Description:
It is a single chain. The protein is of the alpha+beta class. The protein is built from two helices and four strands; from the N terminus they run αββββα. The chain has a two-stranded antiparallel ribbon. Strands 3-4 form a two-stranded antiparallel ribbon. The longest helix has 24 residues, at 2-25. It binds zinc ion.
Amino acid sequence: MGRLIFWLLFAFAAWLLVKKLRQGGAMPGSPRVPPGSVGGEKPVENMVACAHCGLLLPESDSIRRGSEHFCCEEHRREH
Length: 79
Ligand SMILES: [Zn+2]
């Protein structure tokens, strides 16, 4: 009898897993936004301007030299 309960639980767990995987696969590539975030917006990253051409870009994409930011390696060198 214990075996039957085990298999029932196993089947239930497998069903939950399949359900979860299907839900996750419904929106491929969707960003993982916490449900409590404001309006589902992405967290705004700090934008910086290239010291050479003034192009705005996210700080993480910029090339830093001291306190200055650049949009690309060329501008960092030319500046
Ligand atoms: Zn630039």
